[in-house]
Design a protein that fits this description.
The chain is built from six helices and no strands. The chain has 186 residues and is mainly α.
Length: 186
């Protein structure tokens, strides 16, 4: 049996750390992709329901957001059983409540946005946090956040009338679904 030197030991530890980081990012991307697909389906359905019943927009979006948080909790708890990592707890729930509370304060209380402005604000607000998450969890989040933000702004400035809801269904809902599928491949 041969002894390894300090240099070889350091290299072996470095290789192990690189593998641990890749596995960690893979688990994060796996859970994030499931959440994005679920949220994308809900957002797509929300935009289409809003098109069909605009007078029920508030109820539709409250339901979409509650179902999204419930989906995140369910997927996180299911992932916990397989990965052994807790990713949804009271702190995460508090973060969601703060996130939505601040968004409502800015868009409804202070901003008093109309339906079109709300349709652009919330996806952009969500994508800000995707970009921030990307600083810790990988560039894919930054790319997704930036792409959906730019496409939302294009729709806001250039797509008029009810077609904006179809645009947002494709860009926000469809964008999240496609992003979730893409994250499964990287």
């Amino acid at each position: 049996m041969t002894d390894i030197g300090a240099k070889e030991a350091a290299q072996a530890l470095s290789d192990i750390e690189a593998i641990v980081q890749r596995v960690r990012q893979s688990r994060i991307y796996d859970l994030a992709s499931q959440i994005m697909i679920a949220a994308g389906v809900l957002v797509l359905a929300g935009n289409l329901a809003n098109f069909v019943a605009p007078s029920r927009a508030t109820l539709i979006w409250v339901a979409v957001n509650v179902l999204t948080v419930a989906s995140v909790a369910a997927l996180s708890l299911m992932g916990r059983k397989t990965a052994g990592v807790q990713s949804f707890d009271l702190k995460v729930l508090a973060a969601f409540l703060l996130f939505y509370g601040f968004g409502i304060l800015c868009s409804v209380v202070l901003g008093q946005y109309g339906p079109r402005e709300l349709g652009a604000f919330w996806p952009i607000y969500f994508m800000l946090f995707y970009c921030i998450a990307g600083l810790w969890f990988g560039r894919a989040f930054i790319f997704i956040g930036f792409a959906i933000t730019v496409l939302t702004l294009i729709g806001y400035f250039f797509i008029m009338g009810a077609a904006f809801l179809w645009w947002m269904a494709a860009v926000n809902g469809g964008g999240l679904i496609l992003s979730g599928l893409w994250m499964r491949r990287i």
